[in-house]
Amino acid sequence: MLSVANQSIHDPSLTTLGEEQCRILARDFPYHNRIDCLVASPLRRTIHTCLLGFEQEAKKGLKIIALPEVQEVSGLPCDTGSNILTLRKEFRNVSLDFQFVDEGWTSKRGKWASDAEAVDKRAKAARQWLKARPEKEIVVVTHGGFLHFMTEDWSDSSRFKGTGWANTEFRSYQFVDEDGDNASIVETVESRKRRRGSEHPLSQTEQREFRAAQHKVWEASGYVPPSKA
Fold it and tell me: CA separation (Å) from 102 to 69, 70, 119, 203?
């Protein structure tokens, strides 16, 4: 969630409110017994969210995989991660797998850049990586802005500052069976009905319009660089 007051803080952890929201997530999440794998963005707040929200899984020995592809979109200090040595030191006493986190993941350049083309590519890479995993029920703890790229769903993208997702909100997705290289995902009927009742999803044209409108908002706020002409 974007907050002008917090944008200058480098890789912040959770606030007291954030920790309480994680405890509520742990209490209310209905699928704890199904989880095969935990994945989190390597930013500190998402690692802590995963540790608190899925504490019972972590205590049972389920290792959290840190995946830099699902880091937040912007290049602001608040969305820029810490180097791997710092992370290993801070989380040395918990079961975290940092094998996919390299030294360049915090650069916000190249494949880690915040422009739409780069974020689209890493969202696709994240979906492909998840689709190739042997586990069937995977929890991904990531960020509100990035989730629109990952799910390719831009509905309600202006509901909050920078996202349509509430803090610690959970939804369920499945891969489209006939899908090929893009590894597209679609929200399950159960998940969407819980959130939106019988409301129909947006059409592809509406999704493009919502995406373009949200990008203009992000560009105006300095959250992402201007689109290439």
Answer: 11, 14, 18, 38
